[in-house]
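Lay summary

Proteins are chains of building blocks that fold into shapes. Our project writes down both the chain and a compact code for its shape. Here are two examples, one after the other.
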Amino acid sequence: MNRYLDSKKTIATINKLKQRINERFTDSGLYKVAVELEDIAKETDEKLKWIAKPNYLLRITLAFIIGLILLVLLYSISIMNISLKIISLAELIQVIEAVLNDIILISAAIFFLLSLEQRIKRTRALAALDELRALAHVIDMHQLTKDPSRAFNYRRTKSSPKETLTSYELTRYLDYCSEMLSLTSKVAALFAQHFNDALVLSTVNDLENLTTGLSRKIWQKLMIIHRLQDDVVLSETLTPEKDGQNPS
């Protein structure tokens, strides 16, 4: 049983959703967002391969720099000429303090160099996650003006958005938005799956919470549509009886 997300299958699912959107809402803004999501997913697959691949050139360079630092440190210690017979206790403390400070600074520099590759990969992963976060907000903007009541009888104003979707088309439109939000979070989860970094994991969790919250708003609209549809059906069923006619 496969317990991990497959980037290829995720891209294929996004491609299928893109085709479904285009078949029902040809060349719509939502279709263009789906195209963008597919492009980001493909770029994510390439970025994950780059993250998983060790940067040997950088590692060799860092190893050379660290070795050079250690050699300088050893040489500095070797040329120190300290005689315990003539040095005072205060001077000895100053020497020890200076040596400890140098060791701490050198250790910090070595740690910085050793974590450089991790930080470079983290920066690229966070930049990709920022793109996914922005795309999630774009998807939310597309469903923002899709008011369920507009698919039924309602009083328009001059500033009311133009609504050409039927109740069924509106349901499909909102479903597509919800699916895209879910797939956006799945693309983000690929980074958490392939790159074990605390900040990246935290960012992925935040993005998943964002898409879940946005999807919840969409499902609330879908529930309203279903309720309004039931009300219309009930009203049409009761109308003949109200006029004293036999509904059969």
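And here is the second example, written the same way.
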Amino acid sequence: MLGAKWRENLRLPDRHIGESPDHLASVAAFVRRHRPRVVAAPYWSDRHPEHVAASALITEGVFNAGLRKYQTEGDAWKVEWICYYFINDTDKPSFVVDVSDYYETKRKALDCHVSQFQPPGSGSAATRLNTPLFRQLIESRDAQFGALAGVTWAEGFVVRDPVPRAGLFKHL
């Protein structure tokens, strides 16, 4: 749906992410193999423990991938920075990216996650995610970030490093 050229799944176990040293080695090897400049990871503060665990695992795996003496496959590779996505409702983004031209694609991609967003049927439990209000929460957040940036829709990201700029003016 998103037009990705490739996708790779590390097959980490649901509800047990980061519990084995092999998980850390898998993330570091992935980074070394693909040599990304930027890594997107879940925000480190989230109500879902699995998102918190994934954030910590990715952060440490990216760090270890840059260490020459860390033992895993591939040559050391240092990522320029990690950007954390899906920030919670109370924190402010470090920066936003205008996604207005791609928002319908985002909606279609969200629709692909039937198990997450479809209203509960018989035998399934109602959750925060499978109510129309959750979709509304996502879209209202993206609209708010967009409005703050002067665009229709924007995704917010948090980074731990300062965001360098060429000067004080918005547009140079």
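What can we say about the second shape? The mean pLDDT is 90.
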